[in-house]
Amino acid sequence: MFRLARQLAGIGVLGLNHRNAEYTLWHNPRKLYPLVDDKLRTKELALRAGIAVPELYGVVEGEYQLRNLRDVLKRYSDFVIKPAYGSGGDGILVISGRLKDLYRKPDGLLIGQEELNHHVANIISGLYSLGGQPDKALIEYRVHIDPLFEAISYQGVPDIRVIIFLGVPVMSMVRLPTRTSGGRANLHQGALGAGIDLATGTTLTAVWRNDIVAEHPDTGSPVTGLRIPDWEDLLRLAANCYELTGLGYQGVDIVLDREKGPLILELNARPGLNIQIANRAGLFPRLNLVEQSHRNLHGVEERVAFARTHFGAHA
Amino acid sequence: MKRYHLFILALCLASFGVGLFLYKALVMGFPLAPRAISDIWNIEARITFVARNAPVKVSLFIPRNTARFAIMNENFVSQGYGISTASKDGNRQAVWSIRRARGQQTLYYRAAVRRIDAEGPQVALTLPEGEKPRFEGAYLAAAESLIANIHAQSADVDTFVKELIKRLNSPQPDDNTALLLGEQAAVSKKVKIAVQILGHAGIPARAIQGVRLEWENREAPIIHWLQVYEEKQWRPYDPITGDSGVPADHFPWYRGAESLVRLEGGDKLQVTLSVNVQEEEAVRAAIETGRIKSPFLLEFSLFSLPIHTQGVYRILLLIPVGAFLLVILRNVIGIKTFGTFMPVLIALAFRETQLLWGIILFSLVVALGLSARLYLEHLKLLVVPRLASVLFVVVLIMAALSVLTHKLGLERGLSVALFPMVILTMTIERMSIVWEERGASEALQQGVGSLIVAALAHLIMTISYVEHLSFVFPELLLVLLAGTLLLGRYYGYRLVELRRFKALVKEEV
Questions:
Q1: In chain A, what residues touch B334 (CB-CB under 8 Å)?
Q2: How confident is the model over B99-158, as pLDDT tens digits?
Q3: Residue A106 lies in a domain
Q4: Which residues of A touch B (CB under 8 A)?
């Protein structure tokens, strides 16, 4: 047991206690948390800074608004409803189409207006929020999956998670929804995680339920060696979030839209550690390196260049 | 810098805690172990019977002050009964009486007993005028023959008594002894016969009925011994071994061969004697006898609080111990639980329900509540009304369980009422959400994790040493606090993370 711990420490795997004590507690001031915990504020902040995000269709803050919900939604054939304070992908409802008065979910199931309203009411009353505090429901643009990912996603939209430490991208992975994850892009719910070579934007091996895999479990298509387009732009977009929120250690979730390109989906002040498994590498040495040299890096360009030279798969 | 700060703080807290602890334990003589010898016991006689709807009179022998023990704080608990105490043949007797009573009746006599370390002989001022016991017919002949035999083989009263006891306890008694004792005589019978024979031989003797002052015994048996008047004092004899003197823990309740309780106007009489050490008094007794030198610290300690409040703190001071355990289990081991401190509160409830019953009742309430919650899910209710409904259901389930287990005669089931209802409700709500969002296995995992943590916390919190130390030496909690603070900067892996990241190592090697 102690040998295992030593081996993990040897390759610099970051544990939860260590992440909390040294990184999130130290580099993420508590007062900045609301910026990322409230997705509405994140969105407003990003829009002001000119960072691309999915378009906001509407916000439901009180139950009285439920009566008009049908009219508000009339204009959109597909959309996403999510809690502003949600975490871990909980409470997100995706509507991919309509059939008369019914809404169609990506898995083909149809739900009525009443069921949709109930879901929104649950969100508002804080069912999915941290600590059950009253919440808001955001209705926003549904991201259309990039053709690149079509063969390796099941129903949902994959997202790209980049860990940004002091403005420098340190590790990245793409999370692919599977049948077991119910179309959600969360590793602990059974999504597939593939590490990304920061230098080139090419996917490395993937992890699914603690196992190393090379193909998507549902579609059978290979998930390694995939090249993500405009990788440098994407990294720049992610690295910009440091100035946006001021959080030293954050996880940036980006989706690739077919028409609109990379969009910031959400920011996370306590990003998970599974990314290490997907990349089969420890975070600790990279974080250390950034801590030593970030003072010499000025501007997004330099930070991204630093990441690409030092944190590539063959660096 | 921040790390030194923490270490210094932890060091200060720990050394202050340990220092005060050592001072109290070594210099002031506070008892370290919960079983430190105490001089005060609570004794209780519980009398139950069924009244016949007629006048009832219950008389109970009660202890009196002796040279070795003092009786303090006597009280009689009885509803509607008149109570009087009187002396009778050198005994004290309490008499409860009532004009009319019906159904199950319970009466209590309670007192505290304090041992007096009085050395020296017990001088009997007057010899009670006992009725001279009479043997008749064959018994008279047997007794006289036995007395003659023993007389021939003994030199004085002491050897006479010892020889008599030896004969009474012989596995193959001679014919005379056998006739007097009858078949399979109990100790009480032997004592009675010994008193009669000694009386016949002109040696004043009496039977003593008492109890052993143990740490705790809810059904203390009555023990018997013999006292013989010799050289102007009563000397005790063990009726089995014949040794003179009785152990220090033998507490005399009354004298004579009569039964402890007499009842008129009722049936199904039962008497239970119980004994337990008065623990909070263990420290007080230590002060009174001068073992704790300066009572200054005591004035500002938990012992200065009223007894009832002390009882509350006895439990409250255990919560930090449970919390410390929780920190270890969550941050070092990595067990997932519902709610941060929920397991500690459940563990407190386990104190009353006992572990096994606690787990059964907890699982039952949560399982039933969860099914109600899953049903409510279909009705699409708003969150707060739904939570309130689950709370209703939880309370009703608890009431139903109490009634059901009571009817089945499982008294433990009643203690379900002690579970924190709101905590249970929140647990059910969280569990059902996790169930829906993450699947049943995750929900059960967290549920079982919570139960395991609660059970462990319960086991730790009920160790009598832990209870004693945290109450008598609350400063030790500062040491735990120091440990908790240090754990707050524990960077190492959690035990479950080793398993989670194991794949990483395998690939590397």
A1: 16
A2: 887 888 888 888 888 777 655 445 555 555 555 566 777 777 777 777 877 777 787 877
A3: yes
A4: 1, 4-5, 7-9, 11, 13, 15-18, 21-22, 63, 90, 114-115, 118, 121-122, 125-127, 132, 188-189, 207, 210-212, 273, 276-277, 280-282
Who contacts B206 (Cβ-Cβ below 8 Å, separation ≥6)?
B128, B130, B195, B226, B227, B234, B255, B256
Which residues make beta-bridge pairs with A103?
A98, A111
Of A140, A170, A193, at which residue does a domain stop?
A140
- CB atoms < 10 A from the CB of B176, how many? 20
> B163 phi and psi, to 5 degrees?
-65, -40
Q: Which domains does chain B have, with CATH numbers?
A: 40-117+259-282 (2.60.40.2250), 137-255 (3.30.460), 308-472 (no CATH)
Amino acid, res. B332? V
**B-chain residues near A131 (CB < 8 A):** none
| pLDDT tens-digit readout, B288-344 | 555 555 556 666 677 666 656 777 788 888 899 999 999 999 889 988 888 778 888
A140, A162, A197 — which closes off a domain? Answer: A140
Query: Minimal Cα–Cα distance from A48 to chain B, Å?
Result: 34
Dihedral, B297, B298, B302, B305 alpha carbons, nearest 10 = -130
Task: Please give the helix or strand (H or E) that residue B426 lies within, else none.
Answer: helix B421-438
Q: Name the domain count of chain A.
A: 2
Residue B252 in tokens: 């005399």
Clarify whether residues A35 and A96 are in a common domain. no
Tell me: pLDDT of A62 over 50: yes
Rg, C-alpha atoms of chain B: 32
> Residue A186 is encoded by which pair of tokens?
């969360």
Task: Provide the pLDDT for residue A81.
Answer: 94
- What is the spatial distance between Cα A163 and Cα A171, in angstroms, rounded to a whole number? 5
Share the mean pLDDT of chain B.
Answer: 79
CA distance A54 to B134: 110
**What does residue B461 show for φ and ψ, rounded to 5 degrees?**
-70, -15
Q: How far, rounded to the nearest angstrom, does the alpha carbon of residue B22 sit from its chain's CA centroid? A: 28
Whole-number mean pLDDT of chain A? Answer: 87
Quick one: three-class SS letters along B461-505? HCCHHHHHHHHHCCCHHHHHHHHHHHHCCCCCCCHHHHHHCHHHH
Angle at B94 between CA B90 and CA B97, to 5 degrees: 140
Contact B383/A132, CB-based, under 8 Å? yes
Domain hosting residue A102, numbered range: 56-140
Our CA dihedral for B155, B159, B164, B168, rounded to 10 degrees, sits at -140
User: Is 0.80 topped by the overall pTM?
Assistant: no
Of B374, B495, B363, nearest to B433 by C-alpha is: B374
ipTM of the complex: 0.73
Any bridge partners for residue B61, and if so which? Answer: B93
Size of interface A-B (CB pairs under 8 A): 83
Cα–Cα distances in angstroms (integers) from residue B117 to residues B39, B65, B374, in the given order: 9, 13, 67
B441 touches chain A (CB under 8 A): no
Average pLDDT over residues A26-36: 87
Establish if A315 belongs to a structural domain: no
CATH label of the domain that carries residue A223: 3.30.470.20
Measure B421 CA to nearest chain A CA, in Å. Answer: 18
Task: Dump pLDDT digits (tens) for B171-214.
Answer: 777 777 777 777 777 777 777 778 778 777 777 777 888 888 77
Res. B411: pLDDT tops 70: no
Both structure tokens of A221: 């298509």
State mean pLDDT over A243-264.
91
CA distance B239 to B187: 7
Please give the Cα distance from B258 to B46 (Å, whole number).
Answer: 18
Q: Does B500 touch chain A (CB under 8 A)?
A: yes
